[in-house]
Fold this sequence. Notes:
The protein has two domains: about 170 residues, endopeptidase domain like (from Nostoc punctiforme) (endopeptidase fold (from Nostoc punctiforme), Alpha-Beta Complex), CATH 3.90.1720; about 70 residues. The chain starts with a helix and ends in a 23-residue tail after the last strand. The chain is an alpha+beta fold and about 290 residues long. Helix content is about 20%, strand content about 30%. A hairpin with a 4-residue loop joins β15 and β16. The protein contains six helices and 16 strands. α3 packs antiparallel against α4.
Amino acid sequence: MACRTRVVHTLIALLALLLAAPTATAAAGPPHAPQRDAAACGALATGASAAAEAAIAAACAEVAAGTWYTWGGGHGAQPGATYGQIDPTDPDSAHDPERLGFDCSGLVRHAYARAAGSDILNGTASTQYYTHRAANRFTAAQGLAPLLPGDLLAWGRSDDLHHIAIYLGAGKMVEAKESGTRLMVSDVRLGGDYYGAVRVNTGKVTGHIHRTWGSGVWTKQAPSLGAGRVYAFPGPTTIRVQCQKHAELVEAEGYSNDVWAYLPDYQAWMTNIYIQGPAWLDGVPDCDTVPPKP
């Protein structure tokens, strides 16, 4: 309701301007908010990689162009703006099928595809946050202090991340926020359900690449069902596995297996039951031979 209220007040103000202004001014149309955002859009701190700066530049170019948020936008066969669709939970999305643009993850996909030269972050906010291309991860409790421009900020629950944006530095981010708005520069919203951030590695991925299956599968602090929870994969996720070991027997989904895999990108363990492939993963060393890195 707050967003729609702001729209009403804006329309009233614009009507007053149009009635009071000469014809030439009226023809100019509404204030150019996208251009004002564009002036503040860019890497606002040092330390970012060249690829991160390129991703920011690609996102900021869309802000400068006044590109619309559109639900489902940016998820075509290739990265780039697409027409959106109606979100049945949001009346403000009624015009999204007419608007060429991006939703939050569509913008992130486009920006990093331009930066990397390939489609490395195709998917939803959850898919992007849980990318196997993570160079580093940061919790909500760490705040903004360790972040660099180009890091991805995520909101939601571990097993259901619903929004993602690109950090610019200085407490600012570029985002495709919601239906009825254009892409914008915003203050980072650390309250509410801010979940954390991830730094993207656009270079070569090394290690043993595998994929999980199932939904809501939790990783653990130790190879045991009773260990503390770390992250929950919302759906099938590409992962890097450093090593595996025999530990607590797990029975789930009609399978029994005592092998657990160590995932270095999360500093966490998961039962091999939920990793596609044989019970003991081919080519992955035993953790007794290759101990997990701290």
